[in-house]
From TrEMBL, chain A:
Protein name: Cullin-1
Family the UniProt entry places it in: Belongs to the cullin family.
Family matches, as SMART domains: CULLIN (SM00182), Cullin_Nedd8 (SM00884)
GO molecular function list: ubiquitin protein ligase binding
Organism in which the protein naturally occurs: Hyaloscypha hepaticicola
Automatic annotation (TrEMBL), chain B:
CC annotations in GO: ubiquitin ligase complex
Pfam families in alphabetical order: Cullin_binding (PF03556)
One GO BP: protein neddylation
Free-text function comment from the UniProt entry: Neddylation of cullins play an essential role in the regulation of SCF-type complexes activity.
Domain DCUN1: 26-226
Sample GO molecular function, one term: ubiquitin conjugating enzyme binding
Protein name in the entry: Defective in cullin neddylation protein
Organism from which the protein derives: Hyaloscypha hepaticicola
Length: 783, 239
């Protein structure tokens, strides 16, 4: 039989064969097939097409076709009608084999891109022809092939698939390595920046994919052939390329440059997939590139991170984040470094402002904390995509430097104290008068720091004391801001945390109504011609909610106000019988007009505490009063009276002399005390018409801070004890260690208790017989 | 108080099951009569006062200045050092089966020999020491009294609290004198015994941990001892 080549022309079709003569039939068919295979572009006339189709049909349906050929491929044609197709099938295989062997030989004359062109051209021709031939041999497909396949015969395919199988067996197995070589060469060229005709590679990929036939089910395709013969060598080559390239690049360039390079390379590879590779390669290719470009260099990348942090190179850090996030566990070391860095930065920022911790302004301190937080929160957002783990590292670092820094040397309670003070400054009426929206923003920032505070109970204590003062002295900047702050705290810590604060706020609101009620009540009492009563307002504060104590000195209020407050007392008694009013004189204040001053036309108004008022009013009777007179009249104790007088002396409202007329020693010039006499200064001068003499003394403030801390300690003991009792009441029996850790859990939201302190509380409860010690480190609850 | 009574009844049944036959009802009378011998006419009914109690302890041949007396005081569950109650006296000795002074004397002498060896016995006597050394109506011992009793019971015939390199009694007393201003309550007294037992087994204190159930005073003592020994500072230091 002649070898079919492309030079064979099909113009001369052999005569239409006898239906029972295989040799003649095949000769006829071969001519047709050959024509399609080699010369399809010339077209095929309908007669030939129909002739071939009919010949296949006729042969397959002939009853006694006999082969008088003796070539070996065909055997057993005489075995029966149903086997007739087998002869045709075998002849077709032989034809294809011969045809493809010819192509293999021809391919040897090509290399590189020419080989690719050749392969693609032949592949296209072959597969197009296969479709036609498949059509012509449809009768064979439908009957013989189908029957064989139904019977479970292996290696029988429909005619089209048969073409692919033969291509793979004969041609592909011979040339695929060289083809791949050519492909990889082209890709490397492209990686070096040359332009290539990448549609060729795409065609090769498609061809390789088409050759993947599922042996178990020939109607399905698999990617096995492609994966084994294309993907694998492609990945190997990629890996080798980038390993070599990155090694060299890193040696010659900075890490930052390398990161840029790597970023570009990774981007390119992704585009490569879209452009001409099979989508299946995306994941393994990424992995391969990540390993060669990132993981292999992760150590030096991470070493660079500290430098980038130190120099605040946000873009480069973002680059590093993006790169390292692509490899498993790539970011953990960065987070650790980041956390340590933020903590250090925080400590440094605090150290900078904490040169004189005693005089540290709350605002300066809180701003220092906030600045670091804001800076690194920005970095997390900018460079680390707000990734939750980085946010956690940031939180950990902030919690550390907020609670343990130079200012908090003596304990973590300094931060909440300063934060509360800063809040107080913000919420107090001030000359600067910050904008409402600014204030709201600052309060939100306060909450940012608050979130990190461990000793929330300390903040609460200071906050409530300061809120009390703002409310009592009505110098809160705005009710809205106050409410907003309370609701922020409530949101952060729950109802219980702010309960008292809210009640304090309510008391003030209720007192307003009460005062207008009282005004009405008072006006009805007055007879026409009575002296106008003192214009006063009263705040009724619930004992349990306000962090206020009754005054610790005796006091006789001046007669001038006695009537007014007694009236109020009876008014309140009528409204709420059974309630006891305790006057917190130390918090009361008022204004008096100084009509006696010689140097001014408009009289001065003195803003004074009620204690001071009582002192000043004595001078209505006498221009001079001895210390002893004042004590007798007011009943005030020295520790309250002396500072109050001191301010008058210092402001020159009163002139102080020794009772025996001797001059006062210089160092005692502002120290009132026994054996001193005070005289009204008629020559008092002031630039302002309203003179504020109600000034808290520094030492008093310090005392108050110390007291607050002391009450916090006491409250903590009670809080721990009540937690322990609560737990034990529920559990009846509990191991000591369990009880300790449970107690910590219950209290942690307020402060972090120390184990020795908890143990001390357990000791106390054992002693008080709330608890008893059972065997084996176990404690029991005693009802 | 309740737990001490439980200890006592355990102890009774221990001896009951140990072979000594409890006395029958009529022998109860002989114990009652013995008790009355020591009750002065000025004493309350069914109670002995200082003189009678001392006389009794002397009759048992005991040194009134030593831990010896603590043994019979535990047996009769004396509510105070110089006081015995008739019921507890009769019950205590009845369970043991000793209704005469010679019998009791012999029994106490035997117990004294065991005191430093039999830790269960030593613990009973130790715990009762707290009960009978309290002032009437007080729950805790003043520190100076407690120090005296610790010194007493941690020396012969009790078990001396001394290990290879350490005289724990001295350390403990020194530490408390310097650092403890409060009274000694029952828990502290009893836990000191637990601590004593542990240190006798392991003088390196490796059994101790901050998370343990020890009362705070013992934690502080451990820190103090470790500091003296120059051990590496541990977590207590962070306080």
């Amino acid at each position: 039989m002649s070898v079919a080549t492309r030079t064979t022309t099909g113009t001369q079709m052999p005569p239409v064969p006898n239906r029972e003569d295989l040799d003649a039939t095949w000769k006829y068919l071969e001519a047709g097939v050959s024509k399609i295979m080699s010369n399809l572009q010339e077209g095929m006339d309908m007669t030939t097409y129909m002739g071939v189709y009919t010949a296949v049909h006729n042969f397959c349906t002939s009853q006694k076709a006999v082969s008088n050929s003796n070539h070996g491929v065909i055997g057993g044609a005489h075995r029966g009608a149903h086997l007739l197709g087998e002869d045709l099938y075998a002849n077709l295989i032989k034809y294809l084999n011969d045809y493809l062997t010819g192509l293999v030989a021809e391919s040897r004359t090509h290399a590189d891109e020419a080989l690719l062109s050749f392969y693609i051209r032949e592949w296209d021709r072959y597969t197009t022809a296969a479709k036609y031939i498949n059509h012509l041999f449809r009768y064979l497909n439908r009957h013989w092939v189908k029957r064989e396949m139904d019977e479970g015969k292996k290696n029988i395919y429909d005619v089209y698939t048969l073409h692919l199988v033969q291509w793979r067996l004969t041609l592909f197995s011979e040339v695929h390595e060289k083809v791949m070589e050519a492909v990889l060469k082209m890709v490397e060229k492209q990686r070096h920046g040359e332009t290539i005709e990448h549609s060729q590679i795409k065609s090769i990929v498609d061809s390789f994919v088409s050759l993947g036939l599922d042996e178990a089910d020939p109607t399905k395709s698999t990617l096995d052939v492609y994966r084994f013969n294309f993907e694998r060598p492609f990945l190997d080559a990629t890996k080798a390329f980038y390993q070599a390239e990155s090694k060299q690049f890193v040696a010659e360039n900075s890490i930052v440059e390398y990161m840029k390079k790597a970023e570009i390379r990774l981007q390119e590879e992704e585009e490569r997939v879209n452009m001409y590779l099979h989508a299946d390669i995306i994941i393994p290719l990424k992995k391969c590139c990540n390993t060669a470009l990132i993981a292999d260099h992760s150590a030096i990348l991470r070493d660079e991170f500290q430098i980038l942090l130190d120099n605040d190179r946000q873009d480069d850090m973002q680059r590093m984040y993006n790169l390292l996030s692509r490899i498993p566990d790539g970011l953990d070391p960065l987070r650790t470094k980041f956390e340590a860095h933020v903590r250090k930065a925080g400590l440094a920022a605090v150290a900078k402002v904490a040169v004189d911790a005693e005089k540290l302004e709350p605002k300066v301190y809180v701003d220092a904390l906030l600045e670091i937080h804001t800076q690194y929160q920005g970095l997390v957002k900018q460079a680390f995509k707000d990734e939750p783990e980085f946010t956690r590292s940031l939180d950990n670092a902030c919690r550390e430097f907020v609670n343990r820094n130079q200012v908090c040397k003596s304990g973590s309670n300094k931060s909440p104290e300063l934060l509360a003070k800063y809040t107080d400054i913000l919420l107090k009426k001030s000359a600067s008068g910050a904008e409402e929206s600014d204030l709201e923003n600052t309060l939100t920032q306060i909450m940012t720091v608050f979130k990190y505070i461990e000793d929330k109970d300390v903040f609460q204590k200071f906050y409530s004391r300061m809120l009390a003062r703002r409310l009592v002295h009505t110098n809160s900047s705005s009710d809205d801001a106050e409410t907003s702050m309370i609701s922020k705290l409530k949101e952060a810590c729950g109802y219980e945390y702010t309960n008292k604060l809210q009640r304090m706020f309510q008391d003030i609101q209720i007192s307003k109504d009460l005062n207008s009620g009282f005004k009405e009540f008072e006006s009805k009492l007055l007879e026409p011609g009575d002296e106008k009563p003192v214009d006063a307002s009263y705040s009724i504060l619930g004992t349990g909610f306000w962090p206020l104590n009754p005054p610790n000195t005796d006091f006789t209020p001046p007669a001038e106000i006695a009537k007014a407050y007694e009236r109020f007392q009876s008014f309140y008694g009528q409204k709420h019988s059974g309630r006891k009013l305790t006057w917190l004189w130390q918090l009361c204040k008022g204004e008096v007009r100084a009509n006696y001053c010689r140097n001014t036309k408009t009289p001065y108004t003195f803003q004074v505490s009620t204690y001071q008022m009582a002192i000043l009013l004595l001078f209505n009777e006498n221009d001079k009063n001895s210390y002893e007179d004042i004590v007798k009249a007011t009943q005030l104790q020295g520790d309250v009276l002396d500072p109050a007088l001191g301010i008058f002396v210092k402001a020159k409202v009163l002139n102080m002399t020794n009772i025996d007329g001797k001059p006062i020693a210089k160092e005692d010039a502002e120290k009132p005390g026994p054996d001193k006499t005070f005289a009204l200064n008629y020559d008092f001068k002031s630039k302002k018409i309203r003179v504020n003499l109600n000034i808290a003394v520094k030492s008093e403030q310090k005392q108050e801070v110390d007291d607050t801390h002391k009450t916090i300690e006491e409250d903590r003991k009670l809080l721990m004890q009540s937690a322990i009792v609560r737990i034990m009441k529920a559990r009846k029996k509990m191991k000591h260690t369990q009880l300790v850790s449970e107690t910590i859990n219950q209290i942690r939201s307020r402060f972090v208790p120390k184990i020795p302190d908890i143990k001390k509380c357990i000791d106390i409860l054992l002693e008080k017989e709330y608890l008893e010690r059972l065997d084996d480190d176990e404690l029991g609850y005693l009802a | 108080m309740q737990s001490d009574q439980i200890t006592n009844s355990d102890f009774n049944s221990y001896f009951a099951s140990n072979g000594s036959a409890p006395l029958a009802a009529k022998e109860k009378d002989s114990l009652g009569k013995l008790f009355e011998k020591y009750r002065d006419s000025t004493d309350e009914e069914d109670k002995t006062g200082v003189n009678g109690t001392m006389r009794y302890l002397q009759d048992l041949g005991l040194n009134l200045e030593s831990a010896e007396i603590l043994v019979p005081l535990e047996i009769v569950q004396a509510p105070a050092l110089a006081e015995m109650s008739k019921d507890a006296f009769v019950e205590g000795w009845k369970a043991i089966g000793a209704d005469t002074i010679p019998k009791q004397k012999a029994y106490v002498a035997g117990q004294l020999k065991q005191l430093s060896v039999d830790m269960a016995l030593f613990k009973r006597v130790y715990r009762h020491t707290f009960i009978c050394s309290r002032e009437p109506g007080q729950k805790a011992l003043p520190l100076e009294n407690a120090l005296v009793y610790w010194e007493m019971i941690f020396s012969e015939p009790g078990k001396p609290w001394i290990t290879g390199t350490t005289n724990w009694t001295n350390l403990w007393i020194e530490f408390l004198k310097a650092n403890w201003t409060k009274t000694v309550n029952k828990d502290m007294w009893n836990q000191t015994f637990e601590f004593f037992q542990k240190t006798m087994q392991d003088e390196t204190l490796s059994f101790w941990s901050e998370d343990g159930a020890w009362p705070g005073v013992i934690d502080e003592f451990v820190a103090n001892v470790k500091e003296k020994r120059g051990d590496l500072p541990d977590t207590m230091e962070t306080d």
